[in-house]
Amino acid sequence: MKITVVGTGYVGLVTGTCLSEIGHTVTCIDIDQDKVNKMRSGQSPIYEPGLDELMKKNIQEKRLFFTTNHKEGFSGVEVIYIAVGTPEKEDGSANLSFVEQVGKDIAANVERDVIVVTKSTVPVGTNDWIKKVIERNLVHNVKVDIVSNPEFLREGAAIYDSFNGDRIVVGADNEDAANRIEEINKPFGIPVFKTDIRSAEMIKYAANAFLATKISFINEISNICEKVGANVEAVANGMGQDNRIGSQFLNAGIGYGGSCFPKDTKALVQIAGNVEYDFELLKGVIHVNRKQQEILLNKLNERFESLEGKKVAVLGLAFKPNTDDMREAASIVITKHLIEKGANVAAYDPVAMENAKKVIDSKVHYVSNTTEALKDADVALILTEWNEFKDLEIGTFEENMKQSVIFDGRNCYDPKIVENYHVEYHSMGRPSVKNSKLV
Ligand code: UGA
User: For residue 88, what pLDDT is reported?
Assistant: First the structure.
């Protein structure tokens, strides 16, 4: 099948590459010439494990192409995927101007009947609107079918998820179109759930909102655990063994970040508001998530009378491991606070430092490894649970720091193991370890 994907952000590039891997001929369109040149040589503009290799292979096997030219990209194509961004507007709603422009570009260039598949996360009703935008602007007399096909890929695990997802949602108002999209996806071997367009659009928001709710829920439980002397890890484990609850997404910490949950939860509150429904629960989820970073900072401020002149080692900047993405990362708010308090911040992240420099306070000092960050530090904060940090010998903190006080925002270490070292260890929702030799 000849497929074109418009937009080579994280969703578009992963989708295009994986569709080529299962045998389709895929052209990816992007307006950025430099980016297109880079991708043609098999270099991914984003950090995503396994993506470069897969791109190179399919470029070599002549199934994956990149262009800035819409005419060339849409020529003779049977299926077009829209995967451009829907950034958040100031009021929390989704900005659909990029999607609208793609609709107009499609209308101006397609010369045969096409199925337009929306991958971008768009509010309920948007697919019907895109269809109208295309039909209103069509230059040639062709038939356009529209299909909503939301993505459920996690950054950092997107290639794995593409081949091992739980389901593929296909929303269409035309059975033929739905069947053809099902056929395209068959080689992935993932069950396809077919439904109507508006339900498919809603599934994406509801799924992300529910996952965000699980996180805020366990974070509140974690805050209570701290006060009543329980251990949130044990609580999550005991809860998660109930199949109705499930064990995933119950890791307490400093809240969710990234390009999806913060944006999609706010957008869903907005979608509900537009039909005069007050989504109170989801508003609470968003509020709790914001508060979670403050909780770590409050603990730190309680522990140290002043942070003025103190060396703070920050381990991890990305919003989660295995990505260089800094969007809505907890580290942005936390490092800003540390700088305001006069701390001397030494930060290290295995891959996100270049992106961090664009969004984090310029007074943060970047170092090239964990030991350098910890050297003579008064306190260490762990903000992203990279394996590199999880695998650290606790002795490394003791050997390098001036005072081995650790605030672990991601529960990387087992307190039982930490007890064997001369460190003071505070984590989220678990009893602190205070080694008497330190005090
Ligand atoms: C999320 C969803 O998991 C994907 O299914 C969805 O396709 C994607 O959004 C999207 O809408 O495009 P992603 O944002 O890449 O994927 O990352 P997640 O792995 O879901 O993590 C999101 C945030 O939640 C991270 O900051 C992570 O640290 C946090 N999190 C996750 C927790 O704090 N606790 C958990 O138990 C799980």
Answer: 85
DSSP reduced 3-state for 195? strand
C-alpha span between 201 and 184 (Å, rounded): 20
CA of 352 to the centre of ligand 1 (A): 17
User: Helix H segments across 256-385?
Assistant: 261-274, 280-303, 330-340, 353-359, 370-374
The angle formed by the CA atoms of residues 259, 260 and 266, to the nearest 5 degrees, is 110
Q: Per residue in 58-106, pLDDT tens? A: 999 999 999 999 999 998 899 999 999 988 888 888 899 999 999 999 9
Q: Which residues of the chain have pLDDT under 70?
A: 436-439
Residue with tokens 């930060």: 347
pTM score, two decimals?
A: 0.94
pLDDT for residue 437: 53
Query: How far, CA to CA in Å, does 351 sit from each of 34, 155, 384, 392?
Result: 22, 14, 11, 17
Residue with tokens 């397609």: 110
Q: Which residues are catalytic?
A: 260
Domains of the chain (ranges; CATH) run 2-195 (3.40.50.720), 197-439 (3.40.50.720)
> Which residues form the pocket of ligand 1, taking CB atoms under 6 Å from any ligand atom?
151-155, 208, 211, 215, 249-251, 253, 256-258, 260-261, 264, 319-320
